[in-house]
Design goal:
Strand order of the largest sheet: 1-11-10-9-12-13
CATH class of the largest domain: Alpha Beta
CATH superfamily of the largest domain: Nitrogenase molybdenum iron protein domain
Largest sheet: 6 strands, parallel
Number of domains: 3
CATH topology of the largest domain: Rossmann fold
Helix content: 40-55%
Radius of gyration: 25 Å
Mean pLDDT: 93
Structural class: alpha/beta
Number of helices: 18
Distance between the termini: 90 Å
Shape: globular
Length: 437
């Protein structure tokens, strides 16, 4: 039976100037309303350590765990393997290998060396000493996010990789999440979720040593917690509720578009799914398919609420308008299902990931393409890129100059040190070349 929910529809002439803000799940008022609670949890974990983790795990996850129970044991991992299917293990291994192969190539490109006029510059790539990977739980479990965060960290050579994920009321992490962490060779896994996990990773407790950088997506509470602790520990990016924006013209299959919007909506009630199209007929047909799919969806209540609250369709007149709106929105995932899709993609300047054509859905990039699905959301694709092995490294320059190389630049340095009134900078060069004038 078709669902009766409605997705908001705008025509380009009636589009409110703040349309992109209206489609976001987290605004300033929302942040203000939760910030006090998030700060309180962070402060308690920072000051009280393990006892605060015990308290909040019982309060939010309904799990009675003692401090010594938080770290996952080898026996629990072995038991997890008995709870999953062989084909699931194979799928995780394939995903890991695809990500690993792609990331190794990306990392190799960083290792550069140049030499001219007696000066050699080499870029040395060094892994971060320790990282924390947050794996969301709750309405769904995400073993794929384990692969997307732990694998590039491993490729980068990070010595200590910590995974945190919320337990269920029985005090257990999802079995497939544990298996994924084992396959990807995480060093430590903890049954800790939410804001308290971010605080523990940032500041440490008696049980958990702090890390130097925190990775992974989460809900608005986790995203805000990452932002608040970023003054003390590095974070990857603001990766909050998931988004898809589909750009489509009359050639697109409305059934495909609707299916992709539905698949995005099932992540959670705060997920964002939008369509921007030059075809009013397509917009109408997508609405019909959305109602059909939602009416029989396995996660119907979540899907309908997400689409009703944060789903939208915008009807444009030209492809240029499609491009303009996409660049304003800066979506996490951008699907381009149009004629000459590569031409449109070349004009996109802000998106976490672009997927071209009818057979490149978000589902493919989430689970099989070899690209990383930890991507910037909430418009942060204007300034952030998707996660990669590069995020788990530091780049250090090494300069080796000959005496002749220094002499060749002596006068240039003198001009600049005088311009910036730093005479001792020049003297550090002059003293080496006293007998060369």
């Amino acid at each position: 039976m078709p669902s009766k929910f409605k997705v908001r529809i705008w025509k380009i002439n009636d589009l409110p100037p703040d349309w992109f803000k209206r489609t976001r799940t987290t605004d300033e008022k929302t942040i203000e309303s939760i910030e006090c609670n998030v700060r309180t949890i962070i402060s308690e974990v920072k000051n009280n350590g393990d006892s605060a983790l015990v308290k909040f795990t019982k309060e939010f996850d309904k799990a009675n765990l003692r401090a010594k129970d938080f770290r996952v044991t080898r026996e629990e991992v072995q038991e997890a393997y008995t709870m999953v299917a062989d084909e699931q293990v194979s799928a995780l291994k394939l995903m890991k290998e695809k990500i690993r192969s792609h990331e190794k190539l990306a990392l190799k490109q960083l290792q550069t060396s140049t030499s001219q006029e007696g000066i050699t510059i080499q870029d040395k790539v060094i892994p971060i000493d320790s990282v924390g990977c947050y794996i969301p739980g709750g309405q769904a479990t995400y073993p794929s996010t384990v692969v997307m965060t732990v694998t590039p960290a491993k490729v980068a050579g990070v010595p200590r990789i910590v995974v945190c994920s919320p337990p269920n009321k029985d005090g257990r992490i999802n079995s497939l999440v544990l298996v994924a962490a084992d396959i990807c060779e995480a060093d430590e896994v903890y049954k800790i979720g939410g804001v308290q996990a971010i605080a523990a990773l940032a500041y440490g407790t008696d049980m958990i040593e702090p890390v130097m950088k925190i990775f992974g997506p989460g809900n608005k509470y986790v995203t805000l917690a990452k932002t608040l602790v970023s003054n003390d520990v590095a974070i990857d990016m603001p990766a909050g509720p998931s988004e898809v924006l589909v750009l489509a013209d009359k050639t697109a299959n409305p059934k495909f578009v609707a299916a992709d919007m539905i698949s995005q909506a099932e992540h959670g009630v705060d997920s964002v799914a939008g369509l921007v199209t030059t075809s009013e007929k397509l917009a109408e047909e997508v609405c019909e398919w959305l109602a059909r799919f939602a009416g029989s969806a396995e996660r119907q209540e979540i899907v309908e609420k997400a689409l009703a609250d944060y789903g939208f369709i915008i009807i444009c007149k030209t492809k240029d308008e499609l491009i303009t709106l996409a660049n304003i929105f800066a979506p996490e995932h951008l699907e381009v299902i149009t004629q000459n899709a590569p031409e449109i993609a070349n004009k996109i300047t802000s998106a976490g990931l672009i997927l071209l054509g009818s057979y490149s859905p978000v589902s493919l990039s989430d689970y099989g393409s070899g690209t990383n699905h930890v991507l910037p959301t909430g418009g942060f694709a204007h300034a952030f890129s998707g996660l990669s092995a590069l995020d788990f490294t530091r780049r250090m320059g090494i300069v080796d100059s000959s005496k002749e190389g220094l002499l060749a630049l002596k006068n240039h340095v003198k001009v600049m040190t005088e311009a910036e009134n730093l005479p001792n900078h020049y003297k550090a060069i002059a003293v080496r070349l006293e007998n060369e004038d």
